[in-house]
Amino acid sequence: MDDVEVRELRYFRAVAEELNFSRAAERLGMAQPPLSRAIRLLERRLGVQLFERTSRHVSLTPAGAVLFAESAKALDAVTAAVRRTRRAAQRTPALVVTAKPGVATDLLRRIADVHPDPVDVRVSGFGEQTEMLRDGRADVAVLGCQGGTHHGLDVEVLFSEPRVAALPSDHELAGRAVLTCADFSGRPTPCWPLSSAADRAYWSGQDVTGGPVTPGPIVHDSAQLLETVALGQAVALLPASVAELRSRDDVVYRPVVDATPYSLALAWPAGARDPRIARFVRTATEVSEALPRPGAVPAG
């Protein structure tokens, strides 16, 4: 079998995502006949049929579904290699580190102030950090680590802290001194875009109870999350540090004694040999250990 070209994989993914050759060709900025020929050539080279085609319908075959899943990893790897190669060619290449706004970016600024290498801090949205690592837009990420696995990444936990419930100030649970995850059962909790089932269970406390998650409004940042809580549209589980940073009159915070702790971690591509990453991890660990944390519990 001849080698498959990156261009062919990009063509294939455009058709697989659109399930329409005309729309895929328009998206790629090319005519439809050359795209159709390229897909047929790819199928011949692979010796499999990738698409079921009729005059009205295009769908992936089982083989096509496998290539669709696997090709994403391959294209990310190629894109990452190109981006990191170009950064390495800069006169003083900076280590690109990403985190979502809040405690993580505050920590990054402290680290960058004392770190010996240039650091380029880039703010990203919920769930974007691992994608940025895999496609080469970032070298290191600061992210929440809820005990799940991060495939293809190495992870170093910096610290863990308890979580608290965020409730409307007039909520029926607001008068209690402490809560448990069972108190969240059946109550709507905010949903983050692109969150997995495990993420949703963790953020609703149902990873502890094993009960079903009751989805609430979709939110994109902690400020929007607290607005939904204040309006009585949801209750939420948050890291204790967020509660300290975001005090407001219409929201109260209560300890949740059995909630799975929140861990803040560094992540980077598995097997990376860049010595700057190792130096950054050392600096981050030293800075993190010196900072006070609300009700922190030992990592691990």
In short:
With 300 residues, this protein is of the alpha/beta class. The chain is built from eleven helices and twelve strands.
What does the model show?
Residues 4-61 form the HTH lysR-type domain. Belongs to the LysR transcriptional regulatory family. The strands form four sheets. Strands 4-3-5-12-6 form a five-stranded mixed sheet, with helices on both faces. Strands 10-7-11 form a three-stranded antiparallel sheet. Strands 1-2 form a two-stranded antiparallel sheet. β1 (51-53) and β2 form a beta hairpin. The protein is 42% helix and 20% strand. With 300 residues, it is an alpha/beta fold. It has eleven helices and twelve strands. α1 (6-18) packs across α4.
Discrete helix count: 11
The outline comes out as globular
Order of helices and strands: HHHEEHEHEHEEEEHHEHEHEEH
Describe the oligomeric state of these chains in a short phrase. Answer: single chain
Q: Total number of β-strand segments? A: 12
Report the span from N to C terminus: 47 Å
- What do the pLDDT scores average to? 87
The share of residues in extended strands comes to 15-25%
Radius of gyration: 23 Å
Q: Largest beta sheet, briefly? A: 5 strands, mixed
Contiguous uncertain segments of 5+ residues: 296-300
The percent range for helix content is 40-55%
Structural class: alpha/beta
**Order of neighbouring strands in the sheet with most strands:** 4-3-5-12-6
Question: What order do the helices and strands come in, and which of them pair?
Answer:
Elements: H1 6-18, H2 21-28, H3 32-46, E1 51-53, E2 58-60, H4 62-88, E3 95-99, H5 103-114, E4 119-123, H6 128-134, E5 140-144, E6 153-161, E7 163-168, E8 189-191, H7 197-204, H8 206-209, E9 215-218, H9 222-230, E10 236-239, H10 240-245, E11 251-255, E12 262-269, H11 275-290
Parallel strand pairs: 3-4, 3-5, 8-9
Antiparallel strand pairs: 1-2, 5-12, 6-12, 7-10, 7-11
